[in-house]
Design a protein that fits this description.
Blueprint lengths: L8 H13 L33 H8 L17 H18 L7 E6 L2 H20 L6 E6 L5 H9 L2 E5 L10 H13 L4 E7 L11 H10 L3 E8 L6 H4 L13 E7 L11 E6 L27 H40 L3 E2 L6 E5 L5 H6 L3 E2 L7 E5 L6 H20 L1
Parallel strand pairs: 2-3, 2-4, 4-5, 5-6
Antiparallel strand pairs: 1-7, 6-7, 8-9, 9-11, 10-11
Helix pairs in contact: 1-2, 1-3, 2-9, 3-9, 4-5, 6-7, 9-11
The structure holds pyridoxal-5'-phosphate.
Length: 416
């Protein structure tokens, strides 16, 4: 582990307040040309005693705009202090979590997983068009039936076809034979370039793709592809729960980019997706017309809050790599407990071995019970599955009443 350290609350506070010192300060400096300011002082007073020991809230009211991508060299000088913390977050994610080489990645804090996934597909669409003179109709996005809907949304926005590979209904792994036939058909229909999005824990089931299942039929035909990993849910979990077995990281030369979401497992505020790509890629979406932004803008979002980057930096540095590993292990232990209880009750479910998502067959529990305990269905009209996500607040004490109710319902059924 290199960049990522565990720091004390005091060290974190000092580092963030110091970063703010290196930002332009709307309260004190003459900043006449920026169409931005601190948060409204009538509503959010800057002298509130609450802020003295609150680096995140202080950053929030100082309101730095992290517009642009800060791993590329030139960036807006006004917010250089907090941009530095964002660069550290990018390095922690790309290098310490995803085994990348030092300083070989670009990235930024995106609005979320949807944007980060779309950013990747936007880059590869442009790359294929620019470098291979591809036509948009020759490019295909490939995900799976279990992929998040942002893949389909991106295809819609970017005007690209999307293929969702069939998965095995029990294992939730890619059906390689079906994909082989599907790729052959798409190739016959003129597809030559492939944007593959492999899942590092799917939204509903927590399943993890073997990227080679997607790539085998493409590589076999000598066709061009780029591989993006959707780790919006699993990016801060799976690398810790399965440290040896994962292929979904920058140590795998086939992986070009990764999405992670700090507003899921990291419990950062909404608006903290993380987009990461190997160097040399993000330039394909640099907007030259963004000439008033120093360093231009290679992000989908434009203006974005620097406070979000600070929040992720604070959380990751509070735990450090070992603390984070331990946190994941605790969630795994709770998930194991839940699975043992469900097994004892004869309730069927899917759980990927390294996951904290347990997805129960809808036929095996009452919909009322699922609703009462806030389980999420795959489909609100006609559910096949209900999922439990063992997050920080989902303790064994909270799971126990759910299991007790399943047991109670089962014994009442036996008596009637
Ligand atoms: C696997 C996966 N990808 C992408 C997303 C989209 O993330 P967001 O809602 O942050 O845009 C989600 C959200 O649940 C997800 O689970």
């Amino acid at each position: 582990m290199g960049v990522w350290k565990k720091r004390t609350t005091e060290e974190i506070k000092n580092r963030v307040f110091d970063a703010l010192q290196h930002n332009a300060n709307f309260y004190e400096n003459n900043l006449l040309g920026v169409p931005a300011s601190h948060l409204d002082s009538k509503v959010f007073p800057e002298d509130s005693p609450l802020l003295k020991d609150a680096p995140f809230l202080t950053t929030l009211i100082h309101n730095p705009n992290h517009i642009g991508c800060h791993t590329l060299g030139d960036s807006e000088a006004f917010f250089a202090g907090t941009q530095e913390l964002e660069r550290e977050v990018i390095r922690i994610c790309a290098e310490d979590i995803l085994h990348g080489e030092p300083e070989q990645h670009d990235g930024y804090i995106a609005s979320g997983g949807t944007e980060a996934n779309m950013q990747a597909m936007w880059i590869y669409r442009n790359l294929f068009i620019r470098e291979y003179e591809a036509k948009a109709e020759e490019i295909l996005i490939i995900g799976s039936q279990d992929s998040h809907y942002s893949i389909v949304k991106a295809g819609n926005v970017l005007l690209l076809d999307v293929h969702l590979a069939t998965v095995d209904p029990t294992q939730r792994t890619i059906d390689r034979d079906a994909l082989e036939l599907d790729i052959a058909n798409w190739v016959k229909r003129g597809k030559k370039y492939f944007i593959v999005v492999a899942n590092m824990m799917t939204t509903m089931l927590g399943s993890v793709d073997d990227p080679d299942d997607y790539l085998a039929p493409i590589e076999k035909r000598g066709l061009s592809y780029r591989l993006h990993v959707d780790g919006a849910y699993g990016g801060f979990f799976y690398p810790f729960s399965n440290q040896q077995g994962s292929k979904l990281h920058f140590g795998n030369p086939k992986v070009s980019s990764v999405t992670l979401d700090a507003h899921k497992m990291v419990q950062a505020p909404y608006g903290t997706g993380v987009f990461l790509a190997r160097k040399g890629l993000i330039q394909y979406v640099n907007t030259d017309q963004a000439s008033y932004v120093k360093g231009l803008d290679a992000t989908l979002v434009g203006s974005r809050s620097g406070a979000n980057a600070v929040a992720v930096w604070m959380i990751l540095n509070t735990y450090g790599p070992h603390g984070w590993y331990e946190k994941v292990q605790v969630l795994m232990l709770r998930t194991d407990w839940l699975c043992r209880q469900l097994d004892a009750c004869g309730v069927r479910y899917y759980r990927q071995a390294y996951s904290n998502i347990v997805t129960i067959l809808a036929s095996d529990i009452e919909a009322n019970l699922a609703n009462r305990f806030g389980l999420v269905p795959d489909n609100h009209h006609d559910p096949n599955w209900f999922k439990i996500v063992v997050m920080d607040h989902v303790t064994v004490d909270k799971l126990e009443p759910f299991i007790a109710k399943i047991k109670q319902d089962a014994s009442t059924e036996l008596l009637t």
